[in-house]
Specification:
The complex is a heterodimer.
Chain A (H helix, E strand, L loop, with lengths): L1 E7 L2 E10 L7 H9 L4 E12 L1 H17 L2 E5 L3 H9 L7 E2 L1
Parallel strand pairs in A: 2-3, 3-4, 4-5
Antiparallel strand pairs in A: 1-2
Chain B lengths: L9 E4 L7 H4 L6 E4 L16 E6 H6 L2 H12 L7 H20 L10 H15 L2 H4 L2 E9 L2 E7 L24 H8 L2 E5 L4 E7 L1
Parallel strand pairs in B: 1-2, 2-3
Antiparallel strand pairs in B: 3-4, 4-5, 5-7, 6-7
Helix pairs in contact in B: 3-4, 4-7
Classes of the chains: A alpha/beta, B alpha/beta.
Chain lengths: 99, 205
């Protein structure tokens, strides 16, 4: 998995690409810190994310938990194909605003 | 069902150097052994398997094993094409479990909190760099049938007592425990062997 961030005031845009799987688990704390600290809105663009497994989904659970503590608003956009199916089957659309 | 090769023909590859596992599995053999994995002396090639991949934990983290094995199965057994996505998905989860909970012996319950996740991730990083963990093999065996395929994934970890998970027991979103439910949904049959170190998944047309 690769990701890029762009900060603009209170907002951070995060573009996630590649495959988000168990192989990335060692990087999750760094990811959570980077995208949730010091902002009020976090906007994930998953257009280039091609695959996500159950460990990858757990990353978004941690983002959700961090958002609950800090009041951060999360938006997930452009999830398509198997990534969209997987996230919706696991009910992530009840946690985040999907666009 | 076509059997293009016998399972006793084998090919070795270096999992530490391979960049594209699909390419490595293109060799017309039935057994692929990653020479970077350990414990070959005690390894016996399953006599009734059509495909066997024995790969180190480090390579299983770095390479897309599920994709490569699913692709190879489809190349060899064209009649199984309708099962491709289920096989790919279940393999991804079972290889992930074999790496994380099996060979790296990581405590998934740590991931319930962010502080626990930091410990989990630091331990994962340390163990995946430690040859004693990184070299442990994961063995994937496939046995094709007219009506489907049985695929096993075995690790060298401490095993576990499988929970009673049903395919329709969709858990509330959670940081762990989702993988077995996903596997259950993809398979027609699911059982464990070797004290939980080996998961055997049956896919049916």
């Amino acid at each position: 998995m690769q990701f890029t961030t762009k900060r603009d005031g209170n907002r951070i845009d995060v573009a996630v690409s590649g495959r988000l799987t168990f192989a990335d688990a060692a990087t999750f704390p760094q990811f959570v810190d980077q995208v949730t600290k010091g902002v009020g809105i976090c906007d994930f663009d998953l257009r280039e994310l091609s695959f996500i497994d159950s460990t990858g989904m757990s990353l978004f659970v941690h983002v959700y938990d961090a958002a609950q503590v800090s009041g951060l608003k999360i938006v997930v956009r452009n999830a398509t194909g198997p990534v969209s199916d997987t996230l919706r089957k696991a009910r992530f659309d009840t946690l985040f605003e999907f666009k | 069902m076509s059997r293009t090769t016998g399972p006793q023909e084998f090919a070795a590859f270096d999992g530490g150097k391979v960049e594209d596992l699909r390419q490595s599995l293109e060799t017309p053999t039935g057994v692929w052994i990653d020479i970077a994995s350990t414990g070959h002396g005690a390894f016996q090639i399953p006599p009734d398997a059509d495909l066997v991949l024995r790969i180190s934990t480090a390579a299983a983290i770095r390479l897309d094993v599920a994709d490569a094995v699913a692709w190879t199965v489809m190349e060899r057994f064209h009649h199984l094409q309708p099962l491709e996505s289920e096989i790919r998905c279940a393999l991804q989860e079972s290889v992930g479990n074999a790496v994380i909970h099996g060979n790296l012996a990581l405590d998934g319950s740590l991931r319930a909190t962010l502080e626990g996740l930091r410990i989990f991730s630091a331990t994962m990083e340390q163990r995946q760099s430690d040859p004693a963990f990184a070299g442990l093999p994961i063995t994937i065996c496939a046995r094709a049938r007219q009506d489907g395929i049985d695929i096993s994934v075995e690790d060298m970890g401490g095993g576990f007592t499988p929970p009673n998970i049903q395919a329709d027991s969709i858990p509330a979103v959670a940081a762990s425990g989702h993988g077995l439910t996903i596997i259950h949904r993809c398979c027609a049959q699911l059982r464990f062997d070797s004290g939980g170190r080996c998961i055997i998944m049956g896919f049916r047309l």
